[in-house]
Design brief:
alpha+beta, two-stranded parallel sheet, 4 helices
């Protein structure tokens, strides 16, 4: 089923970082993963709630050639805004 925001999110991802927010259980993760699987040649998915993903996030251990990087539950990291801005500023290729 196509979500009404899918095309808009995809278009925005072509030129900038995208943050998807909303209430629990509305499909944010599902939409993000679907876009990664169907519209990008390669993507990486990290969930802050998973210990090994959290370590990979903090150590910036993802494929540098991934065309999309998804960080789920990143808002639980107290300094997430500063962190993601630094990553984006230094790489210019991180989408959420």
């Amino acid at each position: 089923m196509k979500r009404y925001i899918e095309d808009a999110v995809y278009q925005d991802l072509q030129k900038k970082m995208v943050l998807i927010g909303g209430p629990r259980q509305v499909g944010k993760t599902t939409l993000s993963q679907y876009l990664g699987k169907t519209r990008f040649p390669s993507f990486a998915y990290f969930n802050w709630d998973v210990d090994e993903d959290r370590r990979a996030i903090l150590n910036k251990q993802w494929l540098k050639d991934a065309s999309l990087i998804i960080f789920d539950e990143l808002h639980k990291y107290p300094r997430w805004k500063q962190w993601i801005k630094g990553v984006y500023d230094s790489n210019g290729a991180v989408e959420i």
